[in-house]
Amino acid sequence: MPLFKRDVLTRPMADACNAVSAKLTTTVLGELDAQVAKGADPEAVARTWLSANGLA
After folding, report:
1. What 8-state DSSP symbol labels residue 34?
2. pLDDT (average), residues 2-12
3. Roughly what angle, to the nearest 10 degrees, separates helices 42-52 and 26-37?
4. What percentage of the chain reaches a pLDDT higher than 70?
5. How far apart are CA 23 and CA 54, in angstroms?
6. Residues 6+ apart with CB under 8 A from 39
7. How far apart are CA 45 and CA 18, in angstroms?
8. What is the pLDDT of residues 17-38, one digit of tens each?
């Protein structure tokens, strides 16, 4: 679970972070990182992953 300063974090922000955290495993993060290392656009990689996981 991500850590945040309580007076900054809103409930929608916490819910979004928790949803991503629940699906973003070390293996998945490595796969996404590998795509970027091969030259893929980081924003496009993230958007594709978020969409594929029902988070966008």
Report:
1. H
2. 79
3. 140
4. 95
5. 10
6. none
7. 20
8. 889 999 999 999 999 999 999 9
